[in-house]
Design goal:
heterodimer, A: 186 residues, mainly alpha, 2 domains, B: 3 helices
């Protein structure tokens, strides 16, 4: 019941997002939509995905969109009206996607093909070979260790690049800009 | 008992969502979204007990923190109309 109630909330939020013209309200509702999705992921046992959704969707994305609103305006321009060809394309693609999900195995079905391929082997060998009680940790930190190291390197490089780009210039007492945080030139 | 509490929480979430959508003023919406987040935290905690896994309580606490930070950001935006420093401050040390 919690599942369907949360889904209903998400549909209501999405329709309201389309309907509202005050962009501040849209940002607030999208944050609430993300938090709702995160709770739904928790209910569906995908706790790690829920963490990401809550931190990125409800936390960072809301703040970034608020920053955008601060730089622009908070009211959408007049409604240009419905574009029927575009609506038709969207409806057809959506119907095709929903048709595609009809073939999928039931949610959480242990006999689904994806759970029969390599997963049993990892579950069986993981604790013995790596000595870790958690299967996800054994795959991420041991079997895919180099891959995870590469991911961390990418994230670190991205953070360093962002800091170099948007590091604020630092003013000295006499008003002359001596240097920025990132380098020589302001 | 947990079922009853979860059902009541869901009803409250519906009411709060209505206020977030309808809310005539900005403050209605801020309060509604903040309360919606709080109810999400409660719902996760209740769901943990319903499902027999009270470990979910940790996740609920992290959500409470994220909700708090987001609300701080929103209220700061409302007060200063920007998220960075206020423009009349001449010299501020690094964060």
């Amino acid at each position: 019941m919690i599942f369907y109630a949360l889904l209903t909330f998400m549909v209501v939020s999405a329709l309201a997002l389309l309907w509202l013209r005050n962009l501040f309200a849209v940002v607030m509702l999208s944050g609430s939509f993300s938090l709702n999705a995160a709770v739904l992921y928790v209910v569906m046992d995908a706790v790690d995905v829920a963490f990401t959704e809550a931190a990125v969707g409800a936390g960072i994305a809301t703040v970034l969109m608020l920053g955008t609103l601060a730089l622009t305006t908070s009211h959408e321009k007049a409604d240009p009206g419905v574009s029927w060809p575009h609506l038709a394309v969207v409806v057809v693609v959506g119907a095709a996607l929903i048709y595609g999900t009809l073939d999928m195995p039931r949610y959480g079905d242990p006999m689904a093909p994806i759970h029969q391929h390599v997963a049993p082997e990892y579950i069986e060998r993981g604790p013995k070979q790596t000595g870790m009680p958690n299967v996800v940790t054994s795959i991420l930190a041991s079997y895919r260790g180099y891959d995870t190291l590469g991911e961390v390197t990418v994230v670190f490089t991205a953070a360093a690049g962002v800091l170099a780009l948007i590091g604020r210039r630092r003013k000295k007492k006499n008003g002359v800009i001596k240097r920025t945080r990132s380098g020589e030139r302001p | 008992m947990f079922e009853f509490a979860a059902a009541l929480t869901l009803v409250s979430m519906a009411l709060v969502l209505f206020r977030a959508v309808k809310g005539p003023t900005v403050y209605d919406r801020i309060l509604a979204v903040n309360t919606f987040g709080t109810f999400s935290v409660i719902l996760i905690a209740l769901f943990g007990f319903l499902d027999g896994r009270p470990e979910f309580l940790d996740i609920a606490m992290v959500y409470a923190l994220i909700n708090f930070v987001a609300t701080i950001a929103v209220t700061k935006f409302i007060k200063f109309a920007r998220l960075g420093r206020t423009s009349n401050v001449e010299e501020v040390d690094d964060i």
